Amino acid sequence: MKNRMSRLQLLFCILTFIAILPCAAQDTKSYAHTLELRNSRMVPVENRAIEIYDVVTPRTEIGQRLFKIHEHPAFDSLLTPEAEQRILSEINLRCNKLDKDTLLTSDLIWVYRPYFDWLFNEDPHCRIEPMIPAKDVRETKRLKVPEFDVLCINDTLIVNQSLDPDYQTGDRILSVNDIPVSTFLEYTYPDRYDTPANIMRHYYFSNVVDTFRIKLERGGCIINTSTAGDTQSRVVLKLKQQQALKVQTFPDAKSACITIPSFYPNNSWLIKKLHNQIKKFKAIGITNVILDLRMNPGGNGDRFDELLSIFINRPSVKYLRKAKVKCSQKTIDLYDFLTEEMLGQTVELPDNEIVREFPLQSEMYIDGMRYYVLMSRDTGSIAASFCNILQFNDAASLVGEPLLHNALKYGETVQGKTLLPTLLKQTGISIVEYDEYTRAVDGVLMPDIAIPYIAQDYLSGGDAMLDKLLEIIESNPIN
């Protein structure tokens, strides 16, 4: 099944100089040379909480050609000479705007943004992230981050969940350490939900500091704050705990909302909790169940048939028409049918390697319920497939905003490689292209009930999308 790394897992992609291992496809001598070249270009980063380094890249090495991701099933065919030249022109325009002889990692992220966005638009799994080389990797464990996450709507960052009483849900973040939010957002991906540390990480390692000076707006007033934050591991854990299968009930609307933050390598506990909770709802007269997948990046498809059996009243469901894999050094050992002669080719997976249709377990189905699924552009991978299957089988109404382009199309990620001699790294590469049964339009899965994100609606600290859906449910004559 598909899998996708969450952005919380992407925080602090840390690498020591001696810990990087060459990809199998890289020539050892070439790798050693580029690694030595990168080490020779390292410069210390000043005024940071620990001793870290950056790498300078000469302007003359940028904008001549693009790095390629040959393992991906579609990138090579889509990146035509015309497309490559167009992207290179945009990169060179950005370089000229910077007007620097050498570029640091944050500069590379900004000038290569047109290419990163092109890759991401085709496959949302594909991200290029910066690494932070520390002199002593153990020191990174004590680095701290702000104790909240954010909702990003266009150029507006709003506190979503907070562990620190100085920061409240609905606060608008204006700047961090005197850097405007709009500047940070030029360097990062267009995620709906994120963390300040993840956003700042793309801007010159700005999260590696002792203190965060945060200017915010609350109730029309500007407030200057300062926080040391807490360690990343503790913040990530506590924020996840706030979301873990959270249950809310709304008796007036005969409705309940269950937050599903992820799917897991073992979904048995999740399935049991969902099944039991929905039966409890039915027993007390709640007939509208809202599944909140807005912050669910995917995860694992373990027991997916059993999970879907709760919601779909059919003997079986269709899943895939077909699937393709790019034969490469990374994939040839993963599939027995691939051969050396197929290297470089994108080939269809045989029937024994894909799931075209799967049976459901009728005893799991709970009748008499109406289901709604809240989704956002962050709903990805197997979570996107979950939404798609429910919609395709008329089992639930999808609510919110469209999913990202091709959220359903790719999956089965493998480890990416370091883009030597820089500090940039591919976090994961999809190796399989899927053709799911779907109602998606031009690769975009659309909601049945569209409720767009509008920044003003979230500044009061409420959940505007959920509130709007509850209004719609209450106004329904059949409710």
UniProtKB/TrEMBL annotation:
InterPro entries: ClpP/crotonase-like_dom_sf, Tail-specific_protease. It holds the Pfam family Peptidase_S41. The keyword Signal applies. The keyword Cell membrane does not apply. One of its GO terms (biological process) is proteolysis. GO terms for molecular function: serine-type peptidase activity. This is Tail specific protease domain-containing protein. Residues 256-402 form the Tail specific protease domain. Residues 1-25 form the signal peptide. It comes from Alistipes communis. Gene3D superfamilies: 2-enoyl-CoA Hydratase, Chain A, domain 1 (3.90.226.10). Keywords: Signal. It comes from the Bacteria.
